[in-house]
Amino acid sequence: MASLHFCSECNNLLYPKADPQRRIMVYACRICNYDEIGENKCVYRNDLLTVTKEQVGVTGDLMNDTTLAHANMQCPQCGNDDAVYFQDQSKRKETRMILFFVCTKCNHNFTDPTVARPQDAD
Question: Which family does the UniProt entry place this protein in (predicted)?
């Protein structure tokens, strides 16, 4: 389990860094020149941009939500012409406006088929 390390000289956060001369990983202070040998060699990186995809979240009862706007959008599953819609809520740097629709009859989730997806636009 990774934990936070603090500088014993200036109490700032220590960051993992490779020491090429000693060929080891150390925790180094970015303010002063203090470093210490890392006991735990585990360093984590959580890259959410590669994990995040355009997908509909849990939408149990959205078709009955009176605060959502309605659109005349045909459901690809049942053919109903009424759907509520909402915008993609993912927090990414390159977020474009993506609308998700929920059919008011069968509760099917879908996106606008006339809008090209990024991988389809090439």
Answer: Belongs to the archaeal rpoM/eukaryotic RPA12/RPB9/RPC11 RNA polymerase family.
